[in-house]
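TA notes, week 10

Several of you asked for a full example with nothing omitted. So below is the full record: structure tokens for the whole chain, then the designed sequence directly under it. When grading your own attempts, check the secondary structure regions first.
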């Protein structure tokens, strides 16, 4: 992984497949945080977007949470119960502290989640890129969030704050917007309505010449329902706070791991499942 102070480049089989920006210069209302963009297939097709016109706070691939004890680490407006999306001065930022490990195919990073001048969470983020075939590779992302305050914290979402169907928050991948919406399917279901808001071992988003397959790589991650958008914009995330807030007592840690297969071509269900097995095999 070649790097500077502010960026790092992930490589698979010698090819650059992802650029990681550790200290982006962004306005506070976008909840500044490290992100991966562009992420590309092995053939070079970009499969992420950064600050798109429809949602300027969508930053490629990363970890974003709209409500940590009332502070917004997602960006944009905050959903307020009985009021709706509201501009609030409540944005936090994720601050890169250091890389604890750096290799050409990945890194381990320490981050501080800071809001209102204080640190709420300390994160350890592990990212690894692995070649699967000559047309597919896997991005393995684990994040561990530790409550470093002396008080209980909880993570919420617009859904837990009164907006049904909007349980976003956690791992999030803003995909490339094309002239037609991507298709989405899991092992059992097809279409945004059928896969959104439900747990599934894996979920595939299929664009014009590419396919992304998202895999919950731990038992706890697989329990989190998926947040899926295809028509409004293409994005997939894993929901930390779906039906109720997620408590994090002082000193406790929440860990999630998502492996994403990044493939050239339009994979069918069988091909997607085969790559999932390859990506998460022991």
């Amino acid at each position: 992984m070649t790097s500077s102070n502010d960026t790092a480049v992930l490589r698979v089989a010698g090819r650059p497949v992802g650029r990681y920006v550790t200290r982006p210069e962004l306005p506070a209302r976008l909840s500044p945080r490290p992100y991966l963009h562009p992420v590309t297939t092995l053939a070079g097709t970009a499969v992420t977007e950064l600050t798109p016109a429809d949602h300027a706070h969508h930053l490629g691939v990363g970890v974003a949470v709209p409500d940590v004890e009332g502070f917004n680490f997602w960006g944009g407006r905050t959903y307020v119960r009985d009021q709706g999306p509201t501009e609030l001065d409540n944005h936090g930022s994720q601050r890169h502290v250091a890389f604890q490990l750096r290799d050409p195919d990945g890194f381990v990073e320490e981050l501080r989640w800071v809001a209102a001048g204080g640190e709420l969470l300390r994160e350890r983020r592990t990212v690894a890129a692995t070649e699967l075939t000559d047309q597919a590779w896997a991005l393995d992302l684990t994040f561990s969030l530790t409550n470093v305050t002396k008080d209980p914290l909880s993570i919420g979402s617009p859904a837990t704050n009164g907006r049904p169907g909007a349980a976003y928050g956690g791992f999030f991948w803003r995909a490339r917007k094309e002239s037609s919406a991507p298709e989405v399917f899991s092992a059992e279901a097809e279409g945004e309505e059928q896969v959104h808001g439900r747990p599934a071992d894996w979920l595939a988003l299929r664009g014009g010449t590419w396919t992304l397959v998202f895999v919950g790589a731990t038992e706890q991650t697989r329990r989190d329902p998926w947040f899926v958008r295809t028509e409004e914009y293409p994005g997939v995330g894993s929901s930390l706070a779906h039906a109720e807030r997620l408590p994090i007592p002082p000193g406790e840690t929440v860990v999630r791991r998502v492996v994403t297969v990044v493939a050239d071509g339009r994979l069918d269900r069988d091909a997607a499942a085969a790559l999932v097995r390859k990506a998460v095999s022991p």
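Helices lie at 192-195, 219-223, 269-279. Use that as a sanity check on your answer.
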